[in-house]
């Protein structure tokens, strides 16, 4: 097994204790990762704080050039990183519609390079005989990044690249379920940055909690569950940390009766099952008008019956659920739906004695109050609900405390757009779902988070405003 170490102040750092990292397809240990202590975290934060003055003073063009070099280095090592990602995360190399480990690696390159090109401009709001007033964007200081296990490397770059681009230094903590690809990638690029600018510590929730409360971390960027996001928000109050929290979603889609089922079913399936359903903005509740309900259920079941679930070695469409905790939740939600009379068109039960394999599952005739509808499953299971009145469907879609994404499907674009504008969510799609890009802001409302990522809006979240007034009289 490879020897994985943390990255602190430009050096590889071991820990006295380690923890096992499992392959979710086999439940076998593939490596051991270092278990950070408070002392490790303090060293990483101190290194980042010491590196901040010089790094923040570098020019925008210099930082841009370094970030492009980071993308080049990742691209040079894509094969190795994708293979490691498959082992620890479970997603196939290609996967359904090409959305596997290779897709995540390609996303890393796209986001790094697009973010490198972003700029924070000086806004001039007054320039007359009395005064010139400028609004400047300044880096915050040390940014703490806490990332999840569903897209280990992609979400890490979503966090750290805008931080580096704006002149901040970073301390990152990947999920304890998937730390290996992150550690390997960060060591691959470490020589491109001055020591202390980028640091990585690995461990469990207590390290994340310590980051949230740390007095010398100026901002936390977190992607994960709403309960954890709330705890981070409480801990961050100690020094009024800035926060970007991308939290859980339970995205609803409304399919109007004029929808071409044959044309829409494939896109609906793909956006519900992207990354085996383990995507924050995946389509998770599907409301279909009664006129086309049976046809849509049949079409989705047909696609589900045509795909394969298995270990990466078999080149399947879908791999395992990433960890036992999430696997157990998907199983429990499935069992609860069955107990409450829902009809299972496909799947519905684990398929292997070893590994966290749960087949793609389509559920119909399910009540609104069922746990599978009310809770985010974060797995390969989709409830399909019937409606007769559009206003009723909108009310049901908006009843959730989550508000990450939502969509409307229809042959009438104007009508769909009007309805989509009434969805209570951070991103609304028309005739699509879960599609994001590096130049368009993405974030949630209600209990799906605070702040946005991506594009100029996301870049500004890593800065503070300084208004400069220059008197002329």
TrEMBL record:
<dbReference type="InterPro" id="IPR044086">
    <property type="entry name" value="LUC3-like"/>
</dbReference>
<dbReference type="InterPro" id="IPR016163">
    <property type="entry name" value="Ald_DH_C"/>
</dbReference>
<comment type="similarity">
    <text>Belongs to the aldehyde dehydrogenase family.</text>
</comment>
<feature type="domain" description="Aldehyde dehydrogenase">
    <location>
        <begin position="16"/>
        <end position="467"/>
    </location>
</feature>
<dbReference type="InterPro" id="IPR016162">
    <property type="entry name" value="Ald_DH_N"/>
</dbReference>
<dbReference type="InterPro" id="IPR015590">
    <property type="entry name" value="Aldehyde_DH_dom"/>
</dbReference>
<feature type="active site">
    <location>
        <position position="246"/>
    </location>
</feature>
<protein>
    <submittedName>
        <fullName>Aldehyde dehydrogenase 1a3</fullName>
        <ecNumber>1.2.1.5</ecNumber>
    </submittedName>
</protein>
<dbReference type="InterPro" id="IPR029510">
    <property type="entry name" value="Ald_DH_CS_GLU"/>
</dbReference>
<dbReference type="GO" id="GO:0004030">
    <property type="term" value="F:aldehyde dehydrogenase [NAD(P)+] activity"/>
</dbReference>
<keyword id="KW-0560">Oxidoreductase</keyword>
<dbReference type="InterPro" id="IPR016161">
    <property type="entry name" value="Ald_DH/histidinol_DH"/>
</dbReference>
<dbReference type="Pfam" id="PF00171">
    <property type="entry name" value="Aldedh"/>
</dbReference>
């Amino acid at each position: 097994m490879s020897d994985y170490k943390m990255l602190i102040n430009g050096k590889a750092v071991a820990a006295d204790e380690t923890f096992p990292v499992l392959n979710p397809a086999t439940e076998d240990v593939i490596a051991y990762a270092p278990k950070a202590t408070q002392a490790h975290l303090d060293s990483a934060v101190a290194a980042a704080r010491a590196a901040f003055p010089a790094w923040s003073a570098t020019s925008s063009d210099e930082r841009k050039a370094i970030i492009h070099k980071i993308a080049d280095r990742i691209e040079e090592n894509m094969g190795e990183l994708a293979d490691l990602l498959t082992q620890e995360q479970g997603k196939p190399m290609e996967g359904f519609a090409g959305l596997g480990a290779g897709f995540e690696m390609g996303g890393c390159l796209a986001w790094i390079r697009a973010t490198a090109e972003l700029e924070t401009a000086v806004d001039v709001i007054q320039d007359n005989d009395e005064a010139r007033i400028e609004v400047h964007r300044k880096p915050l200081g040390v940014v703490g990044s806490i990332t999840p296990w569903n897209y280990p490397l992609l979400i890490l770059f979503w966090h750290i690249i805008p931080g580096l681009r704006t002149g901040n230094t970073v301390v990152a903590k990947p999920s304890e379920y998937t730390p290996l690809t992150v550690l390997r990638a960060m060591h691959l690029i470490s020589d491109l940055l001055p020591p202390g600018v980028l640091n990585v510590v690995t461990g469990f929730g207590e390290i994340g909690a310590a980051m949230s409360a740390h007095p010398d971390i100026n901002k936390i960027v977190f992607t994960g569950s709403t309960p954890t996001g709330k705890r981070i928000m409480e801990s961050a109050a100690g020094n009024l940390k800035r926060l970007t929290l991308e939290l859980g979603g339970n995205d609803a889609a409304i399919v109007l009766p004029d929808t071409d089922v044959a044309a829409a079913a494939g896109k609906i399936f793909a956006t519900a099952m992207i990354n085996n359903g383990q995507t924050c903005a995946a389509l998770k509740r599907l409301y279909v008008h009664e006129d086309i309900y049976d046809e849509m259920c049949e079409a989705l079941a047909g696609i589900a019956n045509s795909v394969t679930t298995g270990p990466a070695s078999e080149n399947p469409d879908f791999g395992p659920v990433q960890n036992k905790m999430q696997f157990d939740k998907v199983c429990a939600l499935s069992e609860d739906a069955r107990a409450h009379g829902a009809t299972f068109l496909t799947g519905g039960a684990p398929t292997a004695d070893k590994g966290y394999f749960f087949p793609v599952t389509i559920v119909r005739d399910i009540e609104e109050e069922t746990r599978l509808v009310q809770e985010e499953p974060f797995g390969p299971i989709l409830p399909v609900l019937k409606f007769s009145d559009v206003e009723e469907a909108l009310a049901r879609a908006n009843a959730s405390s989550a508000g990450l994404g939502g969509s409307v499907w229809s042959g009438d674009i104007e009508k769909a757009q009007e309805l989509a504008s009434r969805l209570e969510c951070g991103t609304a799609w028309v005739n699509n779902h879960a599609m994001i890009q590096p130049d368009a802001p993405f974030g949630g409302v209600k209990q799906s988070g605070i702040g946005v990522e991506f594009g100029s809006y996301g870049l500004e979240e890593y800065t503070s405003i300084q208004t400069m007034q220059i008197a002329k009289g």
